[in-house]
Please model this.
Amino acid sequence: MEEGAKKAIERGLAWCGPLFVVSIIYTWGIMGHNIPPPNMMAMTPDQLISEYYGKYPEIGAGMILSATFGLFYTIWSCLLASLMRDEHGNVGALSFIELAGGILTGWLFAFCSAMWAACSILTGQVSPEIIKMVHTMTWFIFDCTYMITTIQMCALALYTILNKKQTMFPAWAGWVSAAIGIGFVPLIFMPFVTDGPFMVAGLWNFWIIFTGWIFAFFGVYNFYVLKHVYKSTADQAVAAGRLATV
Model:
């Protein structure tokens, strides 16, 4: 592939990052009325319908769109994995772990959004008890499989911090990535609480960790990825800490 075409592809893939953030905030957050999400663990099935699905019929369309745009996270993660190379240009275990986490996180957004879309579209056609069961089960999947994203963030953190030759990402970004990734652990409490910081819309589980993941982790790394792909080939090799061959 010609160098110009390669750079054009990398830059297009890098812009999938901002596209993911903007689209998810609008489709999942605003259209899906998930800022914050309903506290289903403290709601009866009828309340979930009357206060959420029945009240906001646009949730279905928002979640269908979210299922589509959520996979832009996977595309961006594939680009990121391709940048995580050693000084000889080889990819290692940390690159594959980041890739696996990114693929599965994107799939998680797509799958869970589709399930919530089904809850919205089928409201009035099936019982409120079924709607609550599917809605709640999907949130369990969404939150309690946090390790999918944690391993991605920790692998990226290790690469950033320990690879002293690369200058694509500052060390502080790696520490932030590790902190937020580990900070996902309290999500395991979500199924068992109805209020407090660890409920689905709680101070820690939603406002600190979820928003931190979008802006302090994803936003920061996406900035540096965009910055990197607009450098010359020689400057990219230097920034990546590779033995320059150009």
About this structure: Residues 3-232 form one domain. The chain has a mean pLDDT of 95. Residues 111 and 185 are 21 Å apart (CA to CA).
